[in-house]
Amino acid sequence: MNCKAKTFNRYIFIALFFFLGLFPLYSAIVDRIVARVGNEVILLSEVKERMAPLMERLPSNLSPEERKSKIKALEKKVLDNMIEEKLFLVEAKEKGYQVEESDIDRELEKIKKNFPSEEEFFRALKEQGENISQLKEDIKEQLLIRYVIQREVLSKTRISEEEIKSFYEKYKNDLAPPPEVNISQILIKTSSEDAQKKIKEIEEKLKKGEDFYILARQYSEGPMAVEGGRIGFIRENQLLPEVRLQLKTMKVGEISPPIKCEDGYRFVKLEGVKESHVPSLKEVKEKIERILFRKKSQAALEKWIEEAKKRLGVEVNL
After folding, report:
1. Residue 120 belongs to domain spanning
2. Which of 57, 227, 272, 313 could cross-link with 182 by S-S, CB 3.0 to 4.6 Å?
3. What's the CA dihedral at 128, 132, 138, 144 to 10 degrees?
4. Is the pTM here over 0.70, yes or no?
5. pLDDT band at 153 (very low <50, low <70, confident <90, very high)
């Protein structure tokens, strides 16, 4: 058979696919179902679409084997998330949860506020290959998922007084706030001209008893310079290591020698100290409630998902 005959037969083959309506069937075979949640299905193409922006973040220096392994793990993680979403959406449908159009519009406005203008918002939407109808549908689904989590899981999570007291007795020492120090500083950046000259001048003036705060206003290149370098109370663990180490040797009212740090030299005046103390139950009760609620609600959510998988039936064929 010559080339012209082969080409002609190829066109006939394609024409038959169109005529018989077999292209959609062929696409479905190529695409395929990778998971079922009850009567709902998840297609491979949907997983790939969800993966696309995540794929762009993969390091470019991966070996072929590493890249293949990363993609496989990513594919599984994305599919797991999509299965969980389907579980919530099927539950929402069975329970008859509805989303008001006003709620969708409210969420849409929140999204728009992340953009400088409405034109920028629609431009970004177009670049992502979406339109406003698709976005509204996505918002609707996310709201339904939120409703299920709130009504079926979070609203049923309770924290008892006994649990709070037990947690407090076990962890009260860990709940103690870290020590705080009240400091003022004069910062001379090493990048500044005549840095060493300025440091020497400040040292000499401090030795003569000149006012620390006036010198801070005159020389300091750090924050709060106009307020005399007064930083105020700050947690010890938020201080630079060099400063924290120096303060341990000082008493309230003392001024340090110049402390060499990465960004420059600091003269630090220790104004006051707040020692750590074991808080009362009343002081940390709300904090404990938040900790326990997060822990219990996460466990409850995981339990709900596992039970929903058994109840609705989940099949995976990735």
Report:
1. 97-155
2. 272
3. 160
4. no
5. very high
